[in-house]
Design a protein that fits this description.
Radius of gyration: 18 Å
Structural class: alpha+beta
Shape: extended
Strand content: 15-25%
Number of strands: 2
Largest sheet: 2 strands, antiparallel
Number of helices: 3
Order of helices and strands: HHEEH
Strand order of the largest sheet: 1-2
Helix content: 25-40%
Length: 89
């Protein structure tokens, strides 16, 4: 197995995989137990692309539910901004 394949097949700490990126902290008293990340990356040829990474405890149904929920919340926020612009046209 090549060095690259071994590295890709071994889970690593989130901070190691996404080093240099920053997130807002969790509220006081909250304890992280699982994570899902949607990451915009540059591939080996320098082309921007997207990928997802998730911790071992997130199954496909949770992944789908999370993505659908975030999509619906984003649509609601965007529509709210558009409807509240005060323009009568």
């Amino acid at each position: 197995m090549s060095e690259r394949s071994e590295r890709e097949d071994t889970r690593q700490a989130v901070g190691q995989v996404l080093r240099g990126l920053e997130l807002f902290p969790l509220p006081d008293g909250w304890t992280p137990i699982e994570a899902l990340a949607v990451v915009k990356c540059l591939d080996a040829s320098g082309t921007p692309t997207w990928c997802t990474r998730r911790t071992a405890g997130i199954n496909d149904e949770e992944l789908l539910g999370t993505m659908v929920l975030q999509s619906e919340l984003l649509k609601r926020d965007i529509l709210s901004d558009w409807e509240d612009d005060g323009d009568d046209d």
